[in-house]
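FAQ: What does a ligand-bound record look like?

Like this one, built around norvaline:
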Amino acid sequence: MKHFLTGFDWSSEDMLNLLYLARDMKKDPAKYRSDLLGKSIVILFEKPSLRTRTTFDIAMSRLGGHALYLDQQNGAIGKRETVKDYARNLSRWTDGIVARVFRHDTIEELARYGTVPVVNALCDLYHPGQALADFQTVREHYDDLSKVKLAYFGDGNNVTNSLLITGAKLGATVTAVCPKGYGPDVQIYEKALEIASKTGAKLTVTDDVDAVKGYDVAYTDTWVSMGDDTPLDAVRARYMKYQINRELLDRTGISWVLHCQPAHREYEITSEIMDGPMSLVYDQAENRMHVHAAILSTLLNQVRS
Ligand code: CP
Ligand code: NVA
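The answer part, i.e. the structure of the complex:
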């Protein structure tokens, strides 16, 4: 049975099929109104969420199914009972589990002991659905992703890791521009490089902003991820050079800007750019819904072996 855990678990072809499906669902939602009729999922979040929670819930209802939000204040996963029992019980009632967790191990455990598909809605290492929606947004401007060059600026984190994996699978050029010592996960990067060597993707990690001159897309995310209580002002000096602002876009010649949000305006991105004509951030947020619908449809309609 297929899950959606890291992005490594889906082939390039699987990912492209999913992007085609998401595009069609966006264009012609009426066609899919009964796609998941009578099916149910649970969605649970150990960390806050606006976009992911809303889009999975609404995606499910647009496909004719039902999403139940599991309140973590009332029986947090792994605390009131083991993750194993949590997964086994949920599998008896639902057709899928969507979870945002602190530790990636929790997602793996849900998938190991559950008998329904599990979707990673963000963990410490990955944000795979986000990266797919990001490339879908880019694809709305460039037909051929193998010709697209995306530069990620700032803190190397779960979003950066997933951009590298997804970029590798889709054959794109992805460069993470991060301060030394704050880049993406080294093991994930190396594994993504192996995939890139087969797909023709080009992946790089650097601290040099000028390495991405002539790129197409600039991407950034928070300098401090959920679960880390460090105030943004405490890391400002480390990341300021990587802020997406007018000067950086002029210097690199980049045309489009992405941010997974929530954004910290005047920290990783200026309001001028976020609200300006180069910003695709709200298209990107919208595409989360269509991509999540495609993920749910693909996983819940699979023929189980
Ligand atoms: N980008 C994203 O995952 O947003 P939320 O944390 O609001 O879900
Ligand atoms: N890197 C961020 C992504 C938020 C969607 C975090 O994990 O908090």
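Follow-up question: can I read anything off the structure? Yes, for example: The pocket of phosphoric acid mono(formamide)ester (ligand 1) is lined by residues 49-52, 122, 130, 260-262 (CB under 6 Å).
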